[in-house]
Amino acid sequence: MDAVSSVLKGLLFKSARVEPVVNNKKKETDPLRTLWRRSEGPMVNGIDIDYSYYSPVENGADPAKTYPLVVIMAGALEGVVPGFELEANSLALWTAERYQARFHNGAAFLLIGRAPEEQKLYWDSSRVVLPFKAAIDAFVTEHSQVDTSRIYTVGWCLGGTGSLNLLSSFPGFFAAGFVISPSRAATKAEAELLNETPVWLMGCKSDNYISFHRIIQKSWTRIKTANQNPSALRFTQCSSAPDVYLAGVIPFIQNHDIWDDLAEDLHPETKKCEGMKTETGAGTAVINPFAIEWLSSFTRTGKAAQDCKKEWKKDVPVLFYEKTAVPRRALVVLIMLHLLDRLHYIQLYH
Questions:
Q1: pLDDT tens per residue across span 145-203
Q2: What are the φ/ψ torsions at residue 308 (nearest 5 degrees)?
Q3: Which of 93, 113, 245, 254 is most buried per CB count within 10 Å?
Q4: Start-to-end Cα distance in the chain
Q5: pTM across the whole model
Q6: What is the dihedral of CA 174, 108, 112, 29, to 10 degrees?
Q7: Cis peptide before 56 (omega within 30 of 0)
Q8: Distance CA 205, CA 277 (A)
Q9: Per the CATH hierarchy, to which homologous superfamily does domain 2-342 belong?
Q10: pLDDT score for 244
Q11: Burial of residue 183, with CB atoms counted within 10 A of its CB: 0-12 exposed, 13-18 middle, 19 or more buried
Q12: Three-state SS for 33?
């Protein structure tokens, strides 16, 4: 409810109104976004996932080589309209040559999925797991230059939960993954499924939406305890982070936006988060925690077609979350969107 309180305060005390909301968060990424294209995956269980993607091969990379694929999932309100999943955040920066060059073979495919929010579905729902995996599989089939041993996930907020869902639903398929400020804690069953997967968990101690102690620290304890190679794990925490705003002016969530630092590869000269510290699962401090370098150091160890879908109904904490928190949060977000729309702070449905 802190997020709702922040929005209400913003409505009361902010006089500026922004329309439409679909604009670029970072103007310097405008030329990069023009290099992206849009597509969609097949229909699975009545859901098809559309997405934005960047192909290095279509932008000058050697077609005789193979390149990693980074699958990205954003937070709530970043899937309200097709294409906004790319506009609402800064991960398009990874299209820039200085970041592309850090990946294996000097480039990478990037795919940002759009949660079907018009169906009241977000990345934290297990209902989107199979449709999104089908979209990823179809993308890999269509792009033969994807290195299938180097497929990674990156997700934040509800997308952080989505990253956790994907990694634990298909253990061994993804070579490594970022789980950033997830909306629920990793369960013991999920941690066991991730026992061979390198995971980088991130969270902010002052986040007023994601509980650092009940979600972030609990997830970290479970993941590092179960993992067979804790030295490959990473845990980043910070004392404060940038706030998240609606329509560019209305406070939404405080101390939540860690992913802008991730977009700049956690470079120490550009960090916006305060008090950021990173350690391995073995407790060793990481002085230069470069995200792309960490991702690129891993290749998949599991079977190529290991589609071992997790039995969600047997995991009681996940079942409870899906039956209670997911629909309640979806309703709150929907009410906020319509309220902002009716007050002309944003234009999402016109």
A1: 999 999 999 999 999 999 999 999 999 999 999 999 999 999 999 999 999 999 999 99
A2: -90, 80
A3: 113
A4: 28
A5: 0.88
A6: 150
A7: no
A8: 11
A9: Alpha/Beta hydrolase fold, catalytic domain (3.40.50.1820)
A10: 81
A11: buried
A12: helix
